[in-house]
């Protein structure tokens, strides 16, 4: 049995509003995969951190089997982008709450832009040192998924996250976003497989085998999750994956999935008369980050 904590660090700044439903569905797919892996014998914990100009804990330290699916009421994009604060807070929270040396951590950062609002970790040298310390410890894999491959590579170098753990997605329209998130979830399945096989996951998005040799990813490029880059041979039949993960549209506040668990492409704020977004309550007891506690 493997002990795994998967932490999603998700941007909810105002620019994410048009893909609100796609983000909520992706969060739920990650939760469903964690539940499935728990049923297969792993001990999986799911944490969800979101950020706009502030950082929020949606759920933390909860076993996957007990984590409810997110609703659109849990994800309301607005405001700025405290990206660096969110990453720093997550790693400090891991330090404070999980000392078990047997636990492996997968931290998945999803954003569409650059930092605009961080105050606690605005000094990226401080953040880079924190990320490096955790990654060198062999228990934490930090991945960064952002828009524009060149900007992602710049963040990779600035923050010390291996390029082979970074990927770019296209948010020019909801169709491209759906394809990118579909590809992201497909690739993240390999993390659990690699962990079960005792492999380090320093090459999370690399096409080469995972290796504990960090030099193997030194020449890697940022993976492209855009629709054009989706490998047809790796495509997963939607009915099969829905059955495997037991994904259902319950509690999502969205239309039933079109494919691979992705909701219909109705945009938040859409003027399409056929697009109705049901207002639903959130399932999480969301609270602002407690910086005094986490930095003590």
Set out the fold topology.
Elements: E1 3-11, H1 20-39, E2 43-51, E3 55-63, H2 83-97, E4 103-110, H3 124-136, E5 140-147, H4 149-159, E6 166-169, H5 174-196, E7 223-224, H6 238-245, E8 257-259, E9 262-263, E10 287-288, H7 291-294
Parallel strand pairs: 1-2, 1-4, 4-5, 5-6, 6-7
Antiparallel strand pairs: 2-3, 3-10, 8-9
Short description:
With 296 residues, the chain is α/β, with parallel strands linked by helices. It is built from seven helices and ten strands. The protein has a single domain (3-294), classed as 3-Layer(aba) Sandwich (Rossmann fold), CATH 3.40.50.410.
Main beta sheet strand tally, sense and closure: 8 strands, mixed
The fraction of residues assigned to DSSP E strands is 15-25%
| Count of spatially separate domains | 1
Distance between the termini: 33 Å
Structural class: alpha/beta
Number of strands: 10
SS element count, helices? 7
**Portion of residues within helices:** 25-40%
Oligomer type:
single chain
Question: What's the shape?
Answer: globular
Reading side by side through the largest sheet, how are the strands ordered? 7-6-5-4-1-2-3-10
What does this entry look like structurally?
- This protein has helices spanning 20-39, 83-97, 124-136, 149-159, 174-196, 238-245, 291-294, and strands at 3-11, 43-51, 55-63, 103-110, 140-147, 166-169, 223-224, 257-259, 262-263, 287-288.
- The model is unreliable at 207-218 and 229-273 (pLDDT under 50).
- The strands form two sheets. Strands 7-6-5-4-1-2-3-10 form an eight-stranded mixed sheet, with helices on both faces.
- It has a single domain (3-294), classed as von Willebrand factor, type A domain (Rossmann fold, 3-Layer(aba) Sandwich).
- Helix 1 packs parallel to helix 5 (174-196) and helix 2 (83-97) runs parallel beside helix 3.
- It is globular.
- Strand 8 and strand 9 form a beta hairpin.
- With 296 residues, it is of the alpha/beta class.
